[in-house]
Design a protein that fits this description.
single chain; Rossmann fold; 5 strands; five-stranded parallel beta sheet; alpha/beta
């Protein structure tokens, strides 16, 4: 099983990344699999230029780091979008990446040619935030669901962690670690031997 973890934080080893590592380590320890972490801040990803080229071909005309990422998305069985929360939404790095999935949306909805449809493919969202607002993650969840729909991956749910701001706050919070491990076990249960 191939696991693709897309890290949207500009902060290395921050709370969202630590939560993702906790989840993915638990999954691979339980059912195996091969995990690949992609740090979006290190990728050469230009913003969508809204040229409309993908509406004709289903492919993005911008040739940059996304070319390889499209292939990795195609090959993944389990995907994670991982991001801190900035102003009640995903990080700019994550949102810029997701905007480049417009070509997959065009392929699916305009050209009626989905690129890979398998019921077992699942996608999840892992978000952290410093504050505790009631609707804190609503925007991020909506964007994640739209992303997974565009790439024909079933949305499995989310791990939402409030009250972590400074580096290391997730890793020192046993209650949140246990919540992440439970989340991982629930995901692993969808992939029986």
């Amino acid at each position: 099983m191939k696991i693709l973890v897309l890290l949207g934080s500009p902060r290395r080893k921050g709370n969202s990344e630590s939560a993702a590592v906790t989840v993915v380590d638990q999954i691979t320890a339980t059912i195996g699999g091969e995990a690949e972490y992609i740090r979006l801040t290190k990728e050469d990803i230009s913003p969508c230029i809204a040229c409309g080229g993908c509406e004709k071909t289903g492919e993005c005309i911008v040739k940059d780091g996304m070319v390889d990422l499209y292939d990795k998305i195609d090959g993944a069985d389990l995907l994670f979008l991982v991001s801190p929360t900035y102003f009640y939404g995903l990080s700019a790095q994550m949102k810029g990446f997701i905007d480049r999935i417009q070509c997959r949306w065009s392929r699916k909805y305009l050209l009626k040619t989905p690129f890979r449809k398998e019921d077992r493919r699942l996608g999840y969202l892992i978000c952290t935030a410093a504050t505790h607002g009631k609707k804190l993650f609503d925007g991020s969840i909506l964007v994640a669901k739209s992303f997974y729909d565009a790439i024909d991956v079933r949305y499995g749910g989310e791990l939402l962690i409030r009250g972590v701001d400074q580096r290391g706050e997730f890793s020192s919070n046993q209650e949140e670690i246990e919540k992440a491990q439970l989340f991982a076990r629930e995901i692993a249960s969808h992939f029986p031997d």
